[in-house]
Write a structure and sequence with these properties.
Structural class: mainly alpha
Strand content: under 5%
Distance between the termini: 33 Å
Largest sheet: none
Order of helices and strands: HH
């Protein structure tokens, strides 16, 4: 577990948010590569759809960030719906 040394919540949130976005992008591209591989299509021939990738990143970013906060900083995030 990482130690929170000289970091405030804003820094932690910003770092984990950025990392979560990159991890979601990595997952999206790997998913596309796996599908191309299943269909025996070279990856450079795959027509990637940036808008769909952005939607995937937006939909998974919060969950990934929540996991990063728990693993790296032992911070639990709970959402309360009104």
């Amino acid at each position: 577990m990482m130690k929170i040394k000289n970091k405030n919540w804003v820094q932690i949130q910003k770092e984990t948010s950025t990392l979560a976005k990159w991890m979601a992008l990595y997952e999206a591209i790997n998913y596309c590569a796996d599908k191309a591989d299943e269909r025996k299509i070279p990856f450079n021939k795959v027509n990637l759809k940036p808008l769909e990738i952005m939607k995937y990143i937006s939909s998974t970013e919060d969950g990934i960030q929540k996991k990063l906060l728990k693993i790296n900083y032992d911070i639990d995030i709970y959402y309360v719906e009104n």
